[in-house]
Amino acid sequence: MKQILYSLFALILLAAAQPVTAQSFALQGRVVDEKMNPIELVTVAIPSQGKATLTSLKGEFRLSLQSADSVVVRFSMIGYQTRTRILRHPRGKQTLQVVMHPSDNLLGEVSVTEMRRQTGQTQTLKKDANRMGPSASGNAVEDLIQSQAGVSTHNELSSQYNVRGGAFDENSVYINNVEVYRPFLVRSGQQEGLSIINPDLVERIDFSTGGYAAKYGDKMSSALDITYKRPTHFEASAAASLLGASAYLGLGSRNLSWSNALRYKTTRYLLGSLQTHGEYRPAFLDYQTYLSYTPNPRWQLDLIANVADNHYNFTPADRETRFGTMQNVRSFRVYFDGQEKDLFRTLFASLTLTRRFSPQASLSLIASAFHTRESETYDIQSQYWLTQTETSENLGVGTYFEHARNHLKAQVQSLQLMLNRKMQGHTLEAALCLKHERVEERSTEYEMRDSSGYSIPHTGGDLNLIYSLRAVNTLKARRTEAYLQDTYRFTSQHGHTHFTFNYGLRLSHWSFNGETILSPRLSLGIVPAFNRNITLRLATGLYYQAPFFKELRDTSTTAGITRATLNRNIKSQRSIHFIAAADYRFNLSGRPFKFTAEVYYKAMNHLVPYSVNNVKVVYYGQNLSRGHAAGVDLKLYGEFVPGTDSWINLSLMDTRMLLNGKTLPLPTDQRYAVNLFFTDYFPGTDRWKMSLRLAFADGLPFAAPHRQLENHSFRAPAYKRADIGMSYRLLNNETHAARSPFRNIWLGIDCLNLLGISNVNSYYWITDVTAQQYAVPNYLTGRQINAKLLFEF
Fold first, then answer.
1. CA of 76: how far to CAs of 44, 117, 536, 644, 647, in Å?
2. How far is CA 367 from CA 353, 354, 433, 606, in A?
3. Going by C-beta distance under 8 Å and a sequence separation of 6 or more, which residues neighbour residue 204?
4. 682 phi and psi, to 5 degrees?
5. Using one digit for the tens of pLDDT, what is the confidence trace for 422-456?
6. DSSP assignment, residue 102?
7. CA dist., res. 299 & res. 365, Å (int)
8. Higher local confidence (pLDDT), 291 or 386
9. pLDDT at 271 over 50
10. Where exactly are the structural domains of the chain?
11. Rounded to an integer, what is the distance from CA 557 to the centroid of its chain?
12. pLDDT tens digits, residue range 330-343?
């Protein structure tokens, strides 16, 4: 009987203890910064219980948890130091207020627990992701852009890129809210100098491959938004390599910051690997400065100036190219006479005056000016032999003469008034911009082809040139632009699902053709309650490619002479974007990763057909076609190796346009592309670092010059390239003071085109007396070694 009583008593005690061990408590609170402003989207995690949430727009959070002897709560957010609170025997309702402090060194000792969450169509890229990485162009920001999903390039000498089937001209670029331009007459990557974006000055890189907000202008493909940094103390760096040199000096105090950057680039060493031998004398030089003055919290004055002087001088000598298949090898030999001299001189400046009425409201007046003077002059005669290697049969013998005297001046002045206002859950932005454009063109080009003693085209009696162009044009126009957009962030009723809704309207009017266009755009980002690691994104909008100058040039041929005039009846090209995307963040072996999948469809009409030769885009000058671009972009990003960022992309795309009743691929139709960027440290040390870039992309459609696109099309071979770079950290004074004035010293060596693959960039066309044409491939650079040295002060 006693045993039964003891057993019942033990059961009663056990039942009474069970609710105690399973007792729960409510945790709530608020997360703020040092100025007591709420911080949204902070991750509040309890690792021991596998629970987490995000703070609301008011910085508030709420969780239901199980009690224990101690409960560890971790607060983390990109840009802030991670905070940890330990609750001892929590019961009932617990309330916390956590103050988070900015991180002083994001790349140092701070442990980053998650990647920056993207809730819109613009992603923020790490500006130092490929620093000291291998590069043939020397334009670090564009190298980073070219390795993103949906972006492609087929020329390592160029900073230009295609986005989802768009041409080079369909990408807008902004520096500190001012749209910038590139030279007009550049026709090859060899002529390209330094990009206007100086990586030493860059603080932030925002990039969108489509579905971007109304604040970004009238282009159909992509938007690149660059923010220059404002140094708070003395900093400096100097770098040198076989391809050029650069220097940077930054000064900062409480009210004033001043950045200066000087760059010099020469691709002479790299161009020596081309099959066309001769004397290459490229010299590209630019200077940029950014001055920011804040006399008090209410006013700020910013000045950005850039001066670029780019020269490309070339005297060709000879060339020999073998091409074809194993069973059909052809040899092309050329001897040249003549030279090419090009000049691209650009000036750019912007002045911004900002009045802050409160931390949530500001008004900015932005004045900017762009000026370019360009000249492209060449007289080159070539005598060639095209033979069949197996039989030594002459397929073509003749002379080719090219002449150009192209001169262009362009000026764009703009005045913009921009308003920013933050309210409860809303971020409003509006702007009104007035632009004045003036372009003067004087161009003369002609080509003479002689085959077997006959001038082509051969009529039996007349002496005709195969191509002759004359253009004397002046464009004077005014452009009025305005936009209004709002980013509305809110949570569901129970505060578990977070939404980011961006909507806006853009308006533009151009005096040259009297056209007014309206572009409504919207996007929605969702962080669902069922999984905080998933972000869903939807976007749509109407995007116009407002014509500027090159799209206007309409050609007509009379008596064998082609004349280019400006078409006042041209309309803006139009594209409607439909985008659906999902991001999934996860940890693998304790390291953060993010997988992104994005599906898109672009319906396009009022298209102005164009052809691409190297990096020169030649438009028809009329709205003649319509088409589409559809595809999927996949990207895996993360720390494949602890402490480093790597990624791999896969892009699949299909483009079509209807031109004169025939369906054709767009000239930038790239059906597939794979890009890999991988970084690694040698085992046991962080001094040795390796960077590997791989590109494998489908070849682009090509057509013979001076022919209709719909009649002569074929596809070039795939673009395949591997670049590898090794860098060694000679000195590291990042974490402790030292007598040395240097903060870092890096020594690097790159192997460009590691596998020595001969990629085709364009074609040299040979025409015989029967009008048969042979496409002789122009190959890009071969395998080269580049050494570089970087000092940071």
1. 7, 12, 22, 20, 24
2. 9, 12, 10, 32
3. 124, 127, 226, 227
4. -65, 145
5. 988 899 999 999 999 999 999 999 988 887 666 77
6. B
7. 12
8. 291
9. yes
10. 123-792
11. 38
12. 888 999 999 999 99
Angle at 242 between CA 237 and CA 248, to 5 degrees: 15
Measure the CA angle with vertex 611, ends 609 and 616; round to 5°. Answer: 125
Per-residue b or e along 475-510, where b marks 16 or more CB atoms closer than 10 Å to that residue's CB:
eebebebbbbbbbbbebeeebeebbbbbbbbbebeb
Neighbours of 327 (CB within 10 A): 6
The number of angstroms, rounded, from the C-alpha of 680 to the middle of its chain's C-alpha atoms is 24
* Residues linked to residue 395 through DSSP beta bridges, in sequence order: none
Give the tokens for residue 212.
């971007």
Pairing of strands 784-792, 744-752: antiparallel
**Cα–Cα dist 140/641, whole Å:** 22
Can you give the pLDDT at residue 781?
92
Q: Are 321 and 777 in contact (CB under 8 A)?
A: yes
DSSP symbol at 492 = -
Q: Which amino acid is present at 382?
A: S
Residues 759-768 have pLDDT tens digits of 998 888 877 6
Straight-line distance from the first to the last Cα atom of the chain, in angstroms, rounded to the nearest whole number: 87
Q: How far apart are CA 311 and CA 458, in angstroms?
A: 38
What's the chain's length in residues?
793
CA nearest to 191, candidates 346, 369, 341: 341
Instruction: Answer whether 721's CB lies under 8 Å from 699's CB.
Output: no
Instruction: State the pLDDT at residue 20.
Output: 41
Class of domain 123-792: mainly beta
Instruction: Judge contact between 248 and 274, C-beta under 8 A.
Output: no
Dist. CA 454–CA 59, nearest whole Å: 80
Single out the residue of 191, 220, 536 nearest to residue 342, CA to CA.
191
* Residues 449/398, Cβ–Cβ less than 8 Å: yes
Share in percent of the chain as helix, strand, coil (round to 5): 5, 60, 35
Look at residues 561, 372, 339 and name the one whose alpha carbon lies nearest to residue 471: 561
